[in-house]
Amino acid sequence: MDLAFLTPLLDRPGPWATVYLDTSHTTEDAVRRRALIDRAAVHRLAEAGADEATCGAVRDHLAAEPASGSPPGRALFAADGEVALDVPLAVSPPDVTATWAPLPHTGPLVGLVDDNAPTCLVAAIDRTGATLERHELGRRARIDTVDTPQWQGRGHRAPPADRYEWHYRHRVEDTWDRTAAVIADHLARAWPQSDARLLVLTGDARERRAVHDRLPRPLQALTVELDGGARGAGATGEAFDRRLAEAWDDHRGRHLAEVLDAYHAAVGRPGGQGTDAAGIRTAAGPAAQGIPAVVSAAQQHQLAALLLQPSGHDPERPVWTGPEPDHIGVHRADLRGMGVAHPAQAPAADALLRTAAASGAEALVVPDALPGPPGGLGALLRWAA
Question: DSSP 3-state helix, strand, coil percentages of the chain (rounded to 5)?
Answer without folding.
Answer: 40, 25, 35
